Model the fold of this input.
Amino acid sequence: MPTSNLESYSTIAISIADEIAHIQLCRPQEMNSMITAFWTELPEAVRYIDEHALARVIVISSQGKHFSAGMDLSVFQNMSASFNGEPARRAEAFRRHVLKLQDAFNALEQVRMPVLVAVQGGVIGGAVDMISACDSRYCTQDAFFCIKETEIGMTADVGTLQRLPHLIAQGLVRELAYTGRNMMSQEAQSSGLVNHVYADQETMLRAVMKIAKTIAGHSPMAVAGCKEMINYTRDHNVADSLNYMATWQSGMLQMPDVMEAMSAGQQKRQPMFENLLPKTVD
Done:
């Protein structure tokens, strides 16, 4: 499998085993802050995994005490330096810059496989944007979540305000955004932001990998279909979503995976499914 491209990143470390790709933010001394390279490396990595069908599930975690402090100060400094020149052209260039940052997390939604994220400590600013784009979220007891951008004089612009209202109550989103306060782990679970809270990172990763293994054991076509439909119905009405579902099934529902699942159940064994096809040919 073509995995060499995944071994040269400076902000993330990647391992793949048992159909699960584990992406770790790997700058713990800097609280895994999101430097310029991160905004290119993360989307490139997840799209590479998807394009080459290297895994059936992606798990994202981080090294160190905190998941991520969000966007690194150096990125803000670079943005500040760009605020010069003719206003219209400067604004157009900055708009493209924001769209590029947004695309880093759009990739988490766009890949065919589920993306699970396991967080500990601080999940701050851009890190909230990031986890909001994942399929499922899990955290440790010491985790806290903060829409930090408001405190530093700006509006969060990389996905938090667009995705979070689909995950938790809108009034709570507004409170978190307006105040910039910390949401602690138990509130995050009770509000529906995270699926489960664990005592520590080791216990959390063990449990999340078990969930990922269960997902990886199912038909990749069925799981990819679930992700496609859930994302689609979030952004469309029920009638349009049902129509899209019928169209999807007319082409994607084939018998080999169904028959294999049924046979495996009858024979009390693990089913064996083909991986998704790569999107590109080497």
Observations:
- The mean pLDDT is 93.
- The two ends are 10 Å apart (CA to CA).
- The chain has two domains: 4-216, 220-267.
